[in-house]
Specification:
By secondary structure, the chain is α/β, with parallel strands linked by helices. 38% of the residues lie in helices and 25% in strands. The chain contains eight helices and ten strands. The strands form two sheets. A six-stranded mixed sheet has the order 6-7-8-3-9-10, sandwiched between helices. A four-stranded antiparallel sheet has the order 2-1-4-5, with helices on one face. Strand 1 and strand 2 form a beta hairpin. It is globular, with a radius of gyration of 19 Å. Bound molecules: adenosine-5'-diphosphate and magnesium ion. Magnesium ion binds next to helix 1.
Amino acid sequence: MLISLNNITKVYRSESLAVEALRGITLEVEEGAFSTIMGSSGSGKSTLMNILGCLDKPTDGSYLLKGEDVSRFRKDRLSRVRNKMIGFVFQNFHLLPRTSALENVELPLLYAEEKMSWKEMHKRAREALEIVGLGDRTEHTPNELSGGQMQRVAIARALVTRPSVLLADEPTGNLDSRTSLEIMDIFQQLNREGLTILMVSHEPDIARFSKRIIILRDGVIRSDKPNAARSATAALDAWKDETEMIEEEAS
Ligand code: ADP
Ligand code: MG
């Protein structure tokens, strides 16, 4: 099993109060899965993703990642695991401004344990940008790119280290519907090639492209079901046909 969570809890404490964001999450994710975590705002989705992504530690419970319990790892060891095993995509892209797409994608390689030459880094970053269809935009800075392109750079940056799992927290939250479909099309292609993907979305229209849907409520799993995955490419084609028809009618 790639990921195995057992009774994970997370309590955020401040002086005056304690928030129980996760109240006992038990979950397994096998290699090659493509799952979506859904749930209303405040249900604990980001908290869970941050723990899965080794960006934060649980209060209690165990987290086995490829059989190794990372839940008690100290910060530096956890960040090494993160760099090696996890690709993370955020809603707001988190790209460095005034920095080319290529350099943004190279960044995780600078921190990788496996040292490589500049040449090798450029090559790997270029390949990652090609995978997301941005081979011709390597020198563009984020302000010269659309939202969808920025998210594709962020996906390339997540892929460049060849992670075991891609985690994405509301990856289409800032994108229009067509661009969201393009991102789902990329995710489905990556998953078909064997990449394990776990994403968060509160939109059923996005979740439907994954193979499993997990619903959180108040820090617990309310439902966990397989989903007959639908093709994002087909949805994208239908979307294009429809807009063409509307444009034809308008002209
Ligand atoms: P979601 O992503 O589903 O909207 P979150 O995981 O962000 O939910 O939040 C779950 C709960 O934990 C919410 O009640 C939220 O207010 C609280 N929470 C999240 N992060 C923190 C934090 N850093 N400190 C205190 N409370 C937090
Ligand atoms: Mg969130």
